Each structure stands twice: as C-alpha cells, then as structure tokens.
Backbone:
C-alpha cells in the first residue's frame, strides 16, 4: 500500500551490488543515500548508474561532507578499539589515525577545546574528556568505549563549528559529480545559516537537483527558519545533532523541523539511530518501533536508515520491519497524525 512516509537507506560502496539494491528495493526501500564523505566522485557515478539500472524510480540522495570536523583514515586495517580509561592525543593533521593519536582535518583543534570538555567521536559512539590542552593538541581520556573507523565525525558540545567554508574543495567535486550522474537530491551537511545553502545552490544552479539542508548543529537549529526559506527541504540528522545540543532537545527539534516543513509545503527527512540496535541484532527494540511510528505521525516524508544498512548485520530485516511498522501506523488511524 502507498503510505505518506517512505523508506530511504544508506548504501555503502562495498555493498552496492545489484543483488543488494534489488533485495532492499523489493522489501520497500524507495530511496538510496550515498555519503560522499566516504566515496570518490567516480565511485559515486558508478553507484548511481547501478541503482538506476535496478529501478529508475528509486530516489537518490547524495549528502556532502559540509563544514564538519572528521578524523583521518585509520592506519590499521580494522577499526581501532578505544577502551574506557585509554588516553589519546587528538591533534590537527593529515597523518593516519592510530590508537595513540587521532588526527583531525581542521586547523588549530586546540583552540576549540579546554580541560574538562567533552569530545564525541562518531556521533557520540565514543566519548572522551579533555585532560590537557597545549600547542601539541588535546590529551583526552576515553569515558565511553567504542571502535573508531576512518573519517568519523568529531564534536565538542557547546563549541561553535570552526569557521570552515560552506563548500569544501571535496564537496565541490562531489556536487558536480552528483549533478552529472543524475542524483535527485543533494543534502548539505552541517548547515549553519541560509548563506551555507545559497553557496551550494550556486554550484548546482541550472540543474533539477533538489537541495535539502541537514539540521545537525546548534547554529542550524537557531537559524532553522531562514534556512528552510532557501532550501527545498530539511533533513534532521539526529546523530551529529545529539553531539551538538542536549540530546533531550532532539525530539522537539525534530517536531519543529517537520512542522515547519509541513506548513511550508516542503518535504522532510528524519535520519540516524532509527533502528540502531539492529546493527547487531535481528529484531528492534519496542522504543525503536515507536520512534518509527512517531516519525509517521509527525509527517516525515522519509525515514532514512544510515549505519543500519551501510554496515549493519541485518539490512534487509531493517527495511522489512520499518515497512511493516509504517503501514501498521497508517492503518491504525490516519487521524493520529500530529501535524
């Protein structure tokens, strides 16, 4: 049956086979997200061509890296496990990340940290506390253990994003490739203001690609109204957002964003940690199913799976349970929609 909320899934380049895309599509996936932070422009073109060959009706979204802070590639062949209590140096640089030194691709990291501040890696999957800050970088201790892979986000809650350009040289190449390859949507990451959206708009001018703003930082929340005015839609990226603001405020930001999109007649997407437990488990928690239902009732046009389908162990099961939960919510009572 047709429902007002559709399913989009992140597909990683190492999983982008015809069999994989066909399987998810047959279970109810109607959109695919490609994360340009992890693929080259040429790989993106190849992925879009393959997805189009499976079904021209699949909506393809490409998101940019945006003005965010990411770690460098790891030196090891496997993710680096950081146990609780482990001490590590975080510093600016392009060298590979090791278990002893995490390098980040931003100048002057030490200017944005202070002793005692929280540092979150990979959407908060790993949490550290700064113990000392000097010209060499930030010495920190792990307080929430986890495994760190290549090119993961770094956030320091309560600190403004460094004054990075809205469109990086890498983003410029990715945006041009997305337009040339025929992507349907570009979602710009870490939008801080309307000016960031307009900078991307200049790059894709003359194309039919729709431009969504990702709401995932404090400045984006503060400027959400003016951002929506110049965007074709909003994407609430709850992972990084939860590392930038008090996590207790995420549901209200989601409701605000979806309500504003509904009032403006513009589409909305909710993403991240929708079925997080299914990264390793074949069944979701009851709270995760309620989260899906809430997204439907709030009027989300798309629910976007990220790690669950990009690298999780049960991608097909995620699509299946999400489709069934959306349908059950719609069938229960359409009048229950909150907006």
Residues:
């Amino acid at each position: 049956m047709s429902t007002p909320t559709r399913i989009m899934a992140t597909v990683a380049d190492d999983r982008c086979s015809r069999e994989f895309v066909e399987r998810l599509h047959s279970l109810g996936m109607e959109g695919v997200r490609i994360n340009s932070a992890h693929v080259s422009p040429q790989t993106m073109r190849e992925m879009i061509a393959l997805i189009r060959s499976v079904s021209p009706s699949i909506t393809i979204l490409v998101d940019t890296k945006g003005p965010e802070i990411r770690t460098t590639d790891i030196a090891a062949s496997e993710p680096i496990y950081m146990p609780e209590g482990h001490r590590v140096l975080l510093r600016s640089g392009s060298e590979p990340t090791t278990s002893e030194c995490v390098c980040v691709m931003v100048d002057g990291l030490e200017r944005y940290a202070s002793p005692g501040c929280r540092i979150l890696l990979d959407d908060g999957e790993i949490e550290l506390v700064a113990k000392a800050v000097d010209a060499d970088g930030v010495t920190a201790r792990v307080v929430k253990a986890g495994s760190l892979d290549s090119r993961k986000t770094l956030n320091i809650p309560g600190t403004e994003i460094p004054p990075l350009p809205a469109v990086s040289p890498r983003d410029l190449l990715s945006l041009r490739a997305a337009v040339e390859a025929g992507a349907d949507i570009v979602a710009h990451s870490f939008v801080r203001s309307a000016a960031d959206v307009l900078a991307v708009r200049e790059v894709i001018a003359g194309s039919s690609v729709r431009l969504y703003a990702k709401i995932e930082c404090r400045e984006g929340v503060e400027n959400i109204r003016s951002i929506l005015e110049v965007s074709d839609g909003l994407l609430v990226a709850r992972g990084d957002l939860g590392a930038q603001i008090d996590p207790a405020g995420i549901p209200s930001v989601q409701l605000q964003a979806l309500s504003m999109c509904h009032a403006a007649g513009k589409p909305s997407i909710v993403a991240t940690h929708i079925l997080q437990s299914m990264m390793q488990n074949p069944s979701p928690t009851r709270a995760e199913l309620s989260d899906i239902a809430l997204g439907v009732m709030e009027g989300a046009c798309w629910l976007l799976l990220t790690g669950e389908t990009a690298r999780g162990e049960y991608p097909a099961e995620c699509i299946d349970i999400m489709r069934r939960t959306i349908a059950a919510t719609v069938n229960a009572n359409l009048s229950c929609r909150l907006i």
Q: What stands out?
A: The radius of gyration is 19 Å. The mean pLDDT is 94. The longest helix spans residues 315-332. The domain at 80-155 is CATH 2.40.33.10 (M1 Pyruvate Kinase; Domain 3).
